[in-house]
Amino acid sequence: MAFAQPNRAQWTIICGITLLLVLAWPPGEGRSLGVKLVNWIVDPGGALPAFPGPLPYGLEDNGDAVAEHDAREQEFYRARDRSETTRRRMDMKEWVDPVPPQTERQLLVAIAVLTALVVWRLAGRT
Questions:
Q1: What angle do CA 110, 8, 111 make, to 5 degrees?
Q2: What pTM was computed for the model?
Q3: Measured between alpha carbons, how far is 123 from 96 in angstroms, rounded to an integer?
Q4: pLDDT tens for each residue of 3-58
Q5: Contact 103, 23 (CB under 8 A)
Q6: Is the C or the N end of the chain the one with fewer CB within 10 Å?
Q7: How far apart are the C-alpha atoms of 43 and 95, rounded to whole Å?
């Protein structure tokens, strides 16, 4: 049984969905390739400051540690308040995948299956 080559519309759908699946597929741990790409695009050199995490437990009595933490926090807000563009870049730098990896994988598989059905259906029209 010979199969016909996909037409232009089918190739467009196949390539678009394949790109979506590759970019959105979550790894076992960490961020998906698409989110990593956005994180890198908005701050390729790592110049934007990250919000400092909470002060480690037990260092509340250490005046130098508290002052250093407060200085990092002030630098973060100073950079964030420079412009609307910088604020948006800093927000995008911290993006993570919107749903848990297991749910995201299920949604992506559903998209792939539905796309296969659409492409198959388009084949019947030619």
A1: 5
A2: 0.74
A3: 37
A4: 678 888 889 999 999 999 999 999 988 999 999 999 999 999 988 888 888 877 77
A5: no
A6: N
A7: 12
